[in-house]
């Protein structure tokens, strides 16, 4: 799971940098309003997972959710099929 979390954090950083570049070049109106908040929520879930006690009953559901969300990057060269839910 640590590799998946590192992957999600890296994608978050890369996506935020890409959106900042687009906003800089074309203005904020060029970006969908929902994209950055969605990226922030995925990152928040990953950070909550990292901080969560492994005996917490939510671990299984959050693990599944993170695996589902990571599928949006399944064409990225660093994505691993073993992360599929």
Give a quick rundown of the structure.
Helix content is 64%, strand content 0%. It is mainly alpha-helical.
Question: What features would you describe in this structure?
Answer:
By secondary structure, the chain is mostly helical. It has one domain. It has three helices and no strands. Helix 1 runs antiparallel to helix 2 and helix 2 runs antiparallel to helix 3. The chain is elongated. The termini are close together.
Looking at this protein, list some descriptive labels:
85 residues; mainly alpha; 64% helix; elongated; DUF6221; DUF6221 family protein
Layout of helices and strands:
Layout: H1 2-26, H2 35-51, H3 59-70
Organism: Micromonospora halotolerans
Pfam family, one: DUF6221
Protein name: DUF6221 family protein
